[in-house]
Design goal:
Helix content: 40-55%
Largest sheet: 10 strands, mixed
CATH topology of the largest domain: Rossmann fold
Distance between the termini: 20 Å
Mean pLDDT: 87
CATH class of the largest domain: Alpha Beta
CATH superfamily of the largest domain: HUPs
Length: 281
């Protein structure tokens, strides 16, 4: 039984991510939790009002959140009729990151699925600010789905790696299950001018191979260039369906996520993007 957590701001982007999630796990038993974190909607506009007004507005927003989530659950049940799936509404008076981390721990969540941006994000950016914060700070695998992406079974998965990271079995198991379910190719892309690997890299590469027994795994090496461009080019040239990267200390992904502004993130994937967290959980 998979436990899937889907944050929503009730936007079209969030609805699109839900549709993708239901398709990916269509043939698996799964619990889907639709979460709406509304603390910012209360603290933002009402941080200077008196206590009575604050509590009144908080209740109005809380009730609205619960009603919208219950409606979403009902509509999803009616639309899908999938006996393998169960749905639950989760209103949370917390920030998005805190709500996701706390609920992920509470329910042992396997995967968070969300849109690449919310209803207030500019159409010119790839990732909204909330999505970037979730990538950075939520200690759970996160799958972000572009709003213009039409569902395709993830049969070709790109996994760039420098083999310096000691992978976590739980996250690799998730990737192996996805690859096995869709009989997918996993292209492990190593971007370097050096062909020879260190003992650490060889050990991590072997661990990766052993942890993905159900994947059609291949190893590819490309010379050093702009890494974001190299990944984007590979996605286009090889018609990849899913990009997977690991967020850890001193990784390429961490370097991108900690740019001073969202616009400086060099990677703009047009396919779903799975971020696995090599962080304590």
């Amino acid at each position: 039984m998979k436990n899937i957590l889907i944050p929503t701001d009730f936007s079209n982007n969030a609805e699109h991510a839900i549709s993708y999630a239901l398709n990916v796990f269509k043939c698996e038993r799964a619990n889907f939790y639709f979460l709406h974190a509304y603390a910012d909607e209360v603290y933002g506009p009402y941080h200077k009002v008196d206590a009575e007004t604050f509590e009144k507005q908080k209740k109005i927003i809380a009730d609205d959140s619960e009603n919208k989530l219950n409606k979403l659950v009902t509509e999803t049940q009616t639309k899908t009729h999938n006996p393998l799936h169960k749905y639950e509404a989760v209103p949370a008076f917390e920030s998005l990151v805190d709500a996701l981390n706390n609920f992920a721990d509470l329910k042992n969540i396997d995967l968070i699925i969300m849109g690449t941006k919310g209803k207030t994000a500019s159409s010119k950016i790839t990732f909204g600010s909330n999505t970037v914060q979730v990538f950075k700070y939520v200690k759970c695998p996160v799958l972000a789905v572009p709003d213009q992406y039409d569902y395709t079974q993830p049969k070709k998965i790109l996994f760039p790696s420098n083999y310096m990271i000691p992978y976590k079995r739980r996250e690799l198991k998730l990737l192996d299950i996805l690859a096995g379910e869709f009989k997918a190719e996993v292209h492990s892309l190593y971007i370097s001018d050096f062909v020879d690997l260190s003992h650490r890299q060889l050990d991590n590469k072997k661990f990766l191979e052993e942890s993905l027994p159900h994947a059609r795994l291949s190893f590819v090496t490309k010379g050093v260039e702009n890494r974001a461009k190299a990944i984007s080019t590979y996605i286009t040239d090889h018609k990849m369906d899913l990009l997977v990267m690991v967020n850890s200390r001193h990784s390429f992904l961490e370097d991108m996520l900690y740019k001073s502004t969202i616009d400086e993130i060099g990677l703009s994937p047009t396919i779903p993007f799975l971020v696995m967290q090599n962080l304590s959980r």
